[in-house]
Design goal:
Layout lengths: L6 H29 L4 H24 L1 H6 L3 E6 L3 E6 H25 L17 H27 L5 H29 L1 H25 L3 E2 L2 E2 L5 H27 L1
Antiparallel strand pairs: 1-2, 2-3, 3-4
Length: 259
């Protein structure tokens, strides 16, 4: 426990916990949208199960971090005149996760734009999703977000003494924080249609980011140009800016209603 007497340990722990919470917001958004398809009495249950599963997956991945790191070695190479790719296990998981996010986000946007959120085109009530179906979707996306989160954590704590313990504590603390705020965030997202559309648009951005990250990990070269990953800072700045603009719009709409 001597590591907790060092200032570097606490700085790393606080930084990593904050980062885990920020990255976990993506998870909460997806969980809130998925659980909204359930009856109201099952929504909180699905949210809690989803976040607890996220914690379990992150810890398991951290315990198997040596195997996770070994997945960066190419398992299949593509060498064409215009395309060079070294496909790795890490890149395949991120690519599949990105495609899944793009599919789910665009299909949700399509349903909402077409006005088929609660009814079919025929006008008959739409059948509610089952708890098992929603949990399955949450498990799939938990694996993707956990994988990305753990890779980021490993990169941040590389070379720090007791890094594994620090990462596990950061994951547990961040999930507990998210459990506290998950219901208010979920209620807020589900009560405001514009926020829902904005959240789904964010998920499209994140899906695209995972695909570019996958290409980066595969050292993809197209027509002699390397495909680089999109810095997460740029993405989260765009998301934060968009949210601030939408908050101003909501405030303005509220004031106009009062007037």
């Amino acid at each position: 426990m001597e590591i907790f007497l060092q200032a570097d340990t606490w700085v790393a722990l606080l930084t990593l916990t904050f980062l885990e919470v920020v990255l976990g917001i993506d998870n909460i958004i997806f969980i809130s949208i998925a659980s909204n398809k359930l009856p109201e009495n099952q929504q909180k249950k699905a949210t809690r199960i989803g976040l607890l599963l996220a914690m379990i997956f992150r810890i398991l991945l951290l315990l198997g971090v040596s195997y996770l790191i070994s997945m960066k070695d190419p398992i299949w190479n593509i060498d064409l005149s215009w395309l060079k790719v070294g496909v790795t296990g890490q890149s395949l998981i991120l690519f599949a996760g990105g495609i899944f996010l793009l599919y789910k986000s665009t299909s949700e946007i399509h349903h909402k734009v077409e006005g088929r959120g609660e009814t079919h085109a025929s006008g008959n009530p739409k059948k509610r999703a089952t708890l098992l179906n929603v949990i399955t979707q949450i498990v799939l996306i938990d694996i993707v977000f956990s994988f990305d989160s753990v890779l980021t954590a490993v990169g941040m704590t590389n070379g720090i003494q007791g890094a594994l313990i620090i990462m596990i504590i950061a994951v547990i603390v961040s999930i507990l924080i998210m459990l506290m705020f998950a219901t208010p965030i979920s209620n807020f997202v589900n009560k405001h249609p514009t926020i829902q559309m904005l959240a789904l648009s964010f998920l499209i951005l994140i899906g695209f980011m995972l695909i570019t990250e996958s290409a980066h990990l595969s050292h993809t070269i197209v027509f002699g140009q390397s495909v680089g990953a999109i810095p997460k800072g740029y993405l989260y700045f765009a998301i934060t800016f968009s949210l601030l603009v939408e908050m101003l719009n909501m405030k303005m709409r509220g004031n106009s209603k009062k007037g």
